[in-house]
Each structure stands twice: as C-alpha cells, then as structure tokens.
Amino acid sequence: MDADLLVIGGGINGVGTAADAAGRGLSVILCEKGDLASGTSSASSNLIHGGLRYLEHGQFGLVRQALRERNLLSKHASHLVTAQPFLLPMSPEIRKPWLLRLGLKAYDFLAWDSQLPKSSSIVIKDLGLQSQYHHALKYYDCKVDDSRLVLHVALQAHEHGAQIFTRTEIIAAERTPKYWIVKLKNGNEIRDYVVKAIVNAAGPSAQQIANNILHVHTEHKIRLIKGTHILVPKLFDYNEALVLQNNDQRTIFVIPYMDKFSLIGTTEVLVDDPKDPVASEEEIEYLCNAVNKFILNPIKKADIVHVYAGIRPLYNDNNQDPSKNSREFVIDIDDKQAPLITLFGGKLTTYRHTSEQICNILEKNLPKCGAPWTDTAYLPGGHFPNDDQEMFKQHIKKIYTRIPQDLLQHYFNNYGTRITNLLMNVHSQANLGEHFGGFLYKREVDFLMQHEWARTAEDILWRRGKQGLFLDDQRVSRLSQYLDSCHK
Ligand SMILES: Cc1cc2nc3c(=O)[nH]c(=O)nc-3n(C[C@H](O)[C@H](O)[C@H](O)COP(=O)(O)OP(=O)(O)OC[C@H]3O[C@@H](n4cnc5c(N)ncnc54)[C@H](O)[C@@H]3O)c2cc1C
What we know:
488 residues, alpha+beta, FAD/NAD(P)-binding domain, D-Amino Acid Oxidase, Chain A, domain 2, Helicase, Ruva Protein, domain 3, 3 domains, 13 helices, 31% helix, binds flavin-adenine dinucleotide
C-alpha cells in the first residue's frame, strides 16, 4: 500500500483535507495537475466572510459556520487574514434600508464571538460617490490573499507528513473492494499507486473526474458558475470596501487591493466547461457599468490593469436562478467498495470545517484515522509568541534595520513568523540578491522554489503573492530565464 489516502486537487479544499487527514495520522498523497491553487482558489474575491447576502436566502446555518471559521482563521493566520471594513450605501429602490439594518443586526448576532466591531449607520460625505448616496451601513469582514492561504495550508499538510505532488494528474483508476490502484502522470512519467481511499476535491472538475476517471456515478451533481473580477488603479483613498447593490438584485464589491488598486467583482454566469475560464467582454462591461452608477469619476475599460475569472464548483440544487443556488457544500460518499468521497461546493472561508467533515467520514472507513484537531491549530507562520503580532513585528524591525520597512511589511504579510527562515543570514538589502522588480528579489524566489513548490514565473508572480502586477514583460522574461537556469 502506498498511502491510506489520495487527495485529488491542490485547491483550498484539497490541501485542507490533506492537512487534516495527515494530522490524524493517515499517510496522504495529494496530486495537483498544475500548480497549487491554479484553479478557483486563486480566482476568488479574497474575502474571509460570513456571506452577508446568504442571509437573504435564509442560509443562517451557513453564515454562522462561516463566521466561526472567520474567527478561527483571524486567530490562526493573523498575518494573512486581516479585518476589512465595508460600506453598504443605501439604495432604497433596490432594498429597503430597514431590511438591510435588520440583516446586519442578524449578522452581528451570528458573529457574537467575533472581535470585530459591530455594524453601524453612517452619513456618507466626501467618499467619491454620487450625491443620491448619502447614507450607508458599515460592517466588518476579513480579507486574505487566496492563493497564499492555499500555500499555507499545503505547508501545514506537508509538516504533518503529506506528500504533495504538483504538476501530477490522475489519469486512470481501478477500484477493488479494499483499495484503489491509480495512475498518476507527471510530465512523461506515469506511476501506479495503491491507496485505501480517495477524496476527490478537484473543484469544477470533480464531477468529470468521478464519472470519467474513477467510473463512479455520484448522487449529487455539480453546477458551474463563472465569476469575473477586474482590477483598476485605486479608486478611493479610504480603506473601506464598498458593497454596491445593482438593480438586478446582485451586489458588486469594490475592495482595496494591495494599497495601489481596487478589485471589482463579481459576475455570475452559468458555464458547462470546468476548464480555463475566460472573462467575457460582456462581463467586464457589466462590472464597469455597475460601479459607474455609484461613483463620481467613472471607470473605463482602458483603466483596467488585470482581469481574472474563476468557476464556483457548486452542488446543483436545481434553483431556477443560479445566483440563488445554495452555497452549502455537499459530500458525496460512495463506500460500496474502497471508499470515494467527492466534494461539491465549499468556500475558501469554510475550507477547515469542510475538510474536517470529510475526515470525520473517513474515520468510519479508516480505523487508523484520529480525532479532529484543526480548530486549535495555527497555520505555518501564524503562531506569534504570546499571540502578540505587534511585538513580533517590532522585534523583526530591530533585527532587520537595513531592509526597507515596506519590503519587511510585505514579507511579514506573506510569511508571518517564517520571515526569519526567509531572511536567515540576511544583513542588508544587498544580501537579497538580484532584484526582479516590485518586491521580488532572488532570495524570495529561491525560498519559494525550495519551500513552496514554485516552478515557473507564473507560480511565483500570481500564486505566491501578486507581484505579477508590478513586473513588465522584460522583467518576467528575466525571471523565467533565471528559473530555467535553476532547473537545468
Ligand atoms: C469569482 C469567485 C469569487 C469567490 N470569492 C470567494 C470569497 O471571497 N471567499 C470565499 O470564501 N470563497 C470565495 N469563492 C469560492 C472559493 O473560491 C471556491 O469555492 C474554492 O476556491 C474552491 O476550492 P476547491 O479546492 O474546491 O477547487 P479548486 O481551487 O478549483 O481546486 C481544484 C484543483 O483540482 C485540480 N485538478 C483538476 N483536475 C485534476 C486532475 N485530473 N488531477 C489532479 N488535479 C486536478 C485543479 O487544477 C485545481 O487546482 C469564490 C469563487 C469564485 C468563482
């Protein structure tokens, strides 16, 4: 037997399951056909949130669960998951103000154990919004860099002994009553592995993999909903994100992004193909128009610096309106022979709970599987002495006096306490080696290759941070050239 468990997919739910299972004493292999987080988990709105709008659909249990997870993540990865204030300007013709106030009271109530401030009503002044928007509700959620969260959880899995195989695709499987024989393909190499159980966490491809590779017909079905985001130069000087109510009842977020940009999203379009989603001109126009109805200085398509699209792998509840499709996750269990668990749905915010539920099911089939543990576990880099992040930061500033403050802050946000591993024996900026542009130096590139499974320029620029926003084509080619030289 090569392992107790094979996890298919290196998105947030795959790495979450691998970490939880490995921590319970199972031997785990995770295969990801591309880079970690190369699917939906790097195309989100980057929010760790309860999902205020799900209250409108009566999904109180889902919201409470997500708010609980928001709490845990803000504690266990406080360098990565940070508070984000939101303003919801009143549009009485779309939703009655009393209804929104009531909704936010319910949100506050469900977040009873949160450290974040409660909601309040404010008068809008000098916020760059059109004059008909004069009142807003203010509330708090959290934000995160989605793909860095995936990387942190993958590291947690690895620390507990999981083997993480990137650029490794499952291409075939044979099932027996007691085990699976799977074929994993990495480049030109194909290898057979024998495992006791499989968790299929392939996100949008989960159904296809279940049907075509694992030859199992799942009880539940998937619904694929594409969402697009655009990034424009920072629209406002303030730190609040905006929640804008569009007249089709949908809401559009405008979120401060990396100090210099505003992230605008998202659309909801039903699609058939789980692979390589592309933002359409229509979706981009929809987002620009939705925002322009609110702001004083309209944005144009030419302002857009970056666009991305991702697919929500929701379980299909057959709701006529896809935007009202339930956001609850469903775990499809097939243990007639060697067990297979297929996940439909699941959010970035609730990955820990989802993974815990999956492992609780595995416990029944794999007696070696231990008890749940992740609700008290810090993510790598997230455990600050005495839980005092500020004191740790001051300590770091004293050690690395010759590293610019903004660069140090950038490293802190991305690595937390792991900053000391990254900067081991670094005494000055010169020790960081070649500068590839933005905040990216050779030292970090080497660290990402050695410790975070990075192989290509795209892995580094878009999924180990977002320095891709600051490098021109020439600098990207130089980085690729350097990476090629390392792989020779
Ligand atoms: C537009 C948008 C905005 C969102 N915003 C938020 C938000 O703000 N907050 C939040 O909590 N949630 C948000 N979500 C939801 C969240 O991002 C997703 O639910 C979550 O990332 C799904 O993760 P996953 O691991 O299930 O799937 P994925 O991240 O897609 O991972 C599946 C992985 O499986 C791999 N794979 C596929 N086929 C194979 C194969 N044959 N062999 C091996 N590997 C394979 C893929 O390469 C992929 O990396 C958003 C989603 C979208 C689309």
